Amino acid sequence: MSRHFDAIIIGTGQAGPSLAARFAAAGMTVAIIERHKFGGTCVNTGCIPTKTLVASAYAAHVARRGAEYGFVGNGDVRVDMKRVKARKDEVSGRSNKGVEEWLLGLKNCTVIQGHARFQSPHTVVVNDEVLQADKVFINVGGRASVPAMPGIHEAPFLTNSSMMDIDFLPEHLVIVGGSYVGLEFGQMYRRFGSEVTIVEKGPRPIGREDEDVSDAVREILEMEGIGIRTNAKCISLSKRDSRIAVGMECDEGPPEVVGTHVLLAVGRTPNTDDLGLDRAGVATDQRGYIIVDDQLQTNVPGIWALGDCNGRGAFTHTSYNDYEIVADNLLDSAHRRVSDRIQAYALFTDPPLGRCGMTDAEVRKSGRAALVTKLPMSAVNRAVEKGETQGFIKISVDAETKHIMGAAILGIGGDEVVHVLLDVMYARAPYTVVQRAMHIHPTVAEYLPTVFSKLEPFP
Length: 459
Ligand SMILES: Cc1cc2nc3c(=O)[nH]c(=O)nc-3n(C[C@H](O)[C@H](O)[C@H](O)COP(=O)(O)OP(=O)(O)OC[C@H]3O[C@@H](n4cnc5c(N)ncnc54)[C@H](O)[C@@H]3O)c2cc1C
Prior knowledge:
By secondary structure, the chain is α/β, with parallel strands linked by helices. It is 31% helix and 24% strand. The chain has helices spanning 16-25, 40-44, 47-64, 66-69, 81-104, 180-192, 211-223, 277-280, 316-332, 360-366, 381-386, 414-426, 432-436, 448-452, and strands spanning 2-10, 30-34, 109-113, 116-120, 123-126, 129-138, 142-144, 172-176, 195-199, 227-229, 236-240, 243-247, 256-259, 261-264, 268-270, 303-305, 344-347, 353-357, 370-376, 392-398, 404-410, 456-457. Strands 1, 2, 3, 4, 5, 6 and 16 form a seven-stranded mixed beta sheet that branches. It has a six-stranded antiparallel beta sheet with strand order 17-18-21-20-19-22, with helices on both faces. Bound molecules: flavin-adenine dinucleotide.
């Protein structure tokens, strides 16, 4: 006996629930399947809990700087990790509950809890129940990668998921991986009071960013007392009594660092290995990402893949944008495409890094004649007033069309201000639109016209 639906959605990450709601509202019958927590990574172990923790860490950091701002607190700020975790659980739990209640309340939508596997292209089995649909949408997300490094089976380690259960202060947290997740956790735990060492195998942290961006972020973290070890070759783990040694054979410094806890933050693996994709005939690339076209259709007609599992983005907003593309195309014949979107994301260290469009390396590779401009945050009044002057604004533009090619705003409000530029890029308008606009004083954004007045040929 099988049940038939118009659409089956596997996973309740950032695309699945909205897709279910939109289809159900359009009168389609929908089954949505979740094997673990409603809301997926962002809600339970990613953006929402980590940004809630970042907020606690920021508050502790500012409290420590009280004397600079003219108030006397107890200089010795100690963090109550049980309370920090409870606050995080409350915020993240509310979101998780919200997604669950939303889905359960949808007319035309059947919510099933369990692990879904394809039996054939249009048949999915969950808890021995057989479901069928002409259209199947895969939104299974990813999990922390656990590489086969020496000692991985002997020494205990944490991932972004198990970090969510921590309600104590690790004495010395060693983070393997100096990319976005590693840096956010690193600064957060340093501010909570842990000793923190970040071990990165590349020559610099956040290696995909421009060198000046990555150097400035490194300097900010090092000034807070975070140890950063780069060029770590052959990373290994080994137990050392109650501690864990992370071997690295770096060019400089001791060949290992011994901490009390290790966090692995070395990338993500798509949850596609136990989905029965072979039975459906859905093709993946060598790393397990589902191959999709510009409208997110897989190689099998009637099967789409959205979110992190398709390798076309690794953010909540890219997953949500995937949902919009698929829903608009199917319901409104909108002809939306993944290639129409402009790269944008943020690193939520403090200060944050807001990024849109191309990096310097990508600008260079484009072969376009480009201009670039850079202004230190110390020149921005609002940053000075707030006593947060680290970082800079950097923007590159096409010399001929005057279109913005890319920007990095590392500094206070950088994650918000970058949207001024992003929206102008979407409007396909020249940078002069921003330059001639009247902005509000005193803000960081009001400096964008000044930044544009200093454009120079790209080096
Ligand atoms: C520590 C961390 C911080 C992050 N911070 C940010 C941030 O600040 N901003 C940002 O934009 N992005 C951030 N991200 C990335 C963001 O969380 C993801 O890009 C986002 O969650 C998109 O996920 P998704 O929709 O692809 O699926 P997910 O959210 O991963 O959800 C997939 C769901 O599918 C379920 N599932 C998997 N397999 C099956 C199966 N076979 N049957 C049934 N259910 C299944 C899973 O249980 C899960 O609930 C962060 C990620 C991490 C790890």
